[in-house]
Specification:
Layout: H1 2-36, E1 39-45, E2 51-66, E3 70-76, E4 82-88
Antiparallel strand pairs: 1-2, 2-3, 3-4
């Protein structure tokens, strides 16, 4: 009888943990999706083993990647200046 009570108690605890995990997982992606909506990030590896990347912010930001050649980001930088960033592989 005691084992049955413990197993029911453990089942209730596990269900609560599972529900809490599912809720936090869903909230994380809802917040991440919303915060990334105004972030533009471009990345490409280079043939020499290095990589180039850029990040800009704001509703009007944009990005472009030419794989293994260059990245370009247009938008606000971390200091609030409107920039057009261009980084190429060497």
């Amino acid at each position: 009888m005691m084992r049955y009570v413990i197993s029911i108690h453990m089942e209730v605890i596990m269900k609560k943990i599972l529900i809490a995990t599912a809720i936090s997982f869903a909230l994380f992606f809802a917040v991440a999706e919303k915060s990334e909506a105004n972030t533009c990030y471009a990345y490409t590896p280079c043939q020499n083993g290095f990589a180039v990347q850029c990040t800009t912010y704001g509703q009007g930001c944009s990005w472009y990647v030419q794989p293994y050649q260059y990245v370009q980001c247009t938008g606000f930088d971390a200091w609030g200046n409107w920039v057009n960033l261009y980084f190429r592989c060497y």
